[in-house]
Q: What sequence folds into this?
RNA sequence: GAUCCCGUAGCUCAGCUGGCAGAGCACUUGACUUUUAAUCAAGGUGUCAUGGGUUCGAAUCCCAUCGGGAUCACCA
């Protein structure tokens, strides 16, 4: 243990010796928050120049002590609660029992440490320098802190000194990060608001929030490598879901007109600043709609999110050096037109071999297992994606890349699918869902062939899903949003770890 | 998975042409009844990530390992 930890344990024992419980059991009733008092405290000046305090004259607050400034027989502290920080002013004569100054001189000045949780009762006032503070008449220790917090100081110009910045420590000890870096709290509050706004919108649309299995016997609905686990009683292999799409569509088969799920997905793939092994998706499916309807819904929903998260209610977001405008309608570009626009290449009229030649010339990595559709996707990823800064719908994908999507109503070889790109990144993926069970079986069979060709991510046949479609699924449109990506976008973060409370880390020791 | 950078006090960091382990904040002791990066006086911080090597001597140079970050590859 370090010197400071030993000292804190000694303080703990001394408190007990004085008959003070450092971890009392009974609740402490809080009647006010720091931010409320700071923004709403009022006083009036009387004719004789004295002040008449108008509100918060009997308040109880609780939180952590984050700074102390001793001034002889007076003491200033900064108390931090979940709303912010407020200054406390304590006087020895007001916190002592007659001539016994033990509580002030020993407990408050010696045994109290930064980071301790305390509860105080008193009244709001303004100090000589004009700072709204709480004059403390009763003071109670609620929980003793045994480790020193990093001390982050902010000077009069707002410059931060000795910030707690090491990403490794911030992620491993997020509780410390959240305590000392209020700007990081804000990211998570915004994330929560993002999800709340989306949920409210979907509820208004009349969709039903549902939950579907995380442990799945077949990992369907996306192209990705799964985590595997084992159920002892059933003695069978199970997969952590890589997607929930096939389950949500079963619910549409079952007669729900619209369902949504905020779902943790698990993918056993690489980790970097935009990928965590577990991540959150919002998926929703609505009967009797198509992908064109879904584009309109997406525009409405994201515009509402942008306005809810921006301080002034505007639909624009500053991120990655751009001002992103989420008010619809967004640009709609077919995949082939997008490639033509940014490369001049007309992928529709060229052969697979010509595409291979183009990729070699442009140093785009390809392998023999790739078909024409995959080559087009590679070219798109290399040459187009990064240009799609403002929200853009990319529509009408080759059928081979989209085994769960309905064939295009008028364009042969394509499907009714769109992906939404913002800041060069995909944030949503939507289709008119394939509901023809015979076609769906053929698509799964094509996937099996891809698997035999060496594609590790090809989808597996799901007989029960086919059976469900055979009973009949209404025409349906569905979409999936990457919630972490959206959170990054709307909070201006470039690393997924900054929008996850507990990003995946290697073991510490 | 590959490449590069980083790891020194509780926190932020300096020290790296090899020669006694450093600063600010935090902490300890004392002064101060409206301070606020409080101030003033005095004081102690340590497995220099871990293990090995070179050397009279290693925080410093070399090798390996662990952890993190950035870039690339794969993916959402």
A:
């Amino acid at each position: 243990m370090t010197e400071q930890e030993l000292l804190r344990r000694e303080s703990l024992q001394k408190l007990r010796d004085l008959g003070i419980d450092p971890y009392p059991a009974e609740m402490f009733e809080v009647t006010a928050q720091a931010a409320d008092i700071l923004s709403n405290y009022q006083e009036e000046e009387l004719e004789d120049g004295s002040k008449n305090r108008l509100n918060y004259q009997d308040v109880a607050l609780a939180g952590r002590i984050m700074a102390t400034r001793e001034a002889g027989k007076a003491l200033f502290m900064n108390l931090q609660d979940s709303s912010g920080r407020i200054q406390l002013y304590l006087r020895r004569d007001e916190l002592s029992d007659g001539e016994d100054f033990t509580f002030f001189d020993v407990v408050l000045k010696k045994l109290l440490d930064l980071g301790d949780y305390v509860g105080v009762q008193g009244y709001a006032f303004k100090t000589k320098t004009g700072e709204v503070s709480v004059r403390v008449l009763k003071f109670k220790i609620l929980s003793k802190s045994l480790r020193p917090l990093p001390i982050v100081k902010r000077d009069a110009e707002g410059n931060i000194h000795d910030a707690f910045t090491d990403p490794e420590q911030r992620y491993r000890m997020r509780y410390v990060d959240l305590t000392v870096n209020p700007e990081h709290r804000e990211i998570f509050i915004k994330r929560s608001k993002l999800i709340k706004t989306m949920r409210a919108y979907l509820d208004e649309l009349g969709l039903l929030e549902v939950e579907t299995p995380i442990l799945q016997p077949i990992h369907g609905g996306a192209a990705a490598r799964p985590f595997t686990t084992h159920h002892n009683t059933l003695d069978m292999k199970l997969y952590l879901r890589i997607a929930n799409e096939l389950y949500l569509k079963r619910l549409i088969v079952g007669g729900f007109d619209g369902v949504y799920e905020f779902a943790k997905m698990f993918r056993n793939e690489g980790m970097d600043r935009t990928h965590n092994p577990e991540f959150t998706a919002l998926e929703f499916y609505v009967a009797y709609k198509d992908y064109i309807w879904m584009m309109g819904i997406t525009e409405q929903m994201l515009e509402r999110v942008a306005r809810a998260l921006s301080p002034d209610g505007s639909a624009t977001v500053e991120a990655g050096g751009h001002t992103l405008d989420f008010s619809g309608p967004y640009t709609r570009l077919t995949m082939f037109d997008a490639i033509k626009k940014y490369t001049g290449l007309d992928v529709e009229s060229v052969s697979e071999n010509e595409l291979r030649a183009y990729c070699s010339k442009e140093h785009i990595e390809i392998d023999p297992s790739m078909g024409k559709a995959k080559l087009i996707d590679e070219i798109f990823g290399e040459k187009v994606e990064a240009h799609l800064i403002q929200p853009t719908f990319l529509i009408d994908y080759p059928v081979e890349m989209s085994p769960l999507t309905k064939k295009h109503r008028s364009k042969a070889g394509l499907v009714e699918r769109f992906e939404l790109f913002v800041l060069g990144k995909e944030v949503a993926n939507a289709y008119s869902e394939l509901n023809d069970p015979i076609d769906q079986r053929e698509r799964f069979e094509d996937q099996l062939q891809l698997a035999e060709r060496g594609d590790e991510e090809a989808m597996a046949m799901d007989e029960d899903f086919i059976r469900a479609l055979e009973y009949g699924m209404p025409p349906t449109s569905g979409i999936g949003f990457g919630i972490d990506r959206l959170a990054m976008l709307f909070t201006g973060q470039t690393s997924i770890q900054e929008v996850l409370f507990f990003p995946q880390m290697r073991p510490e020791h």
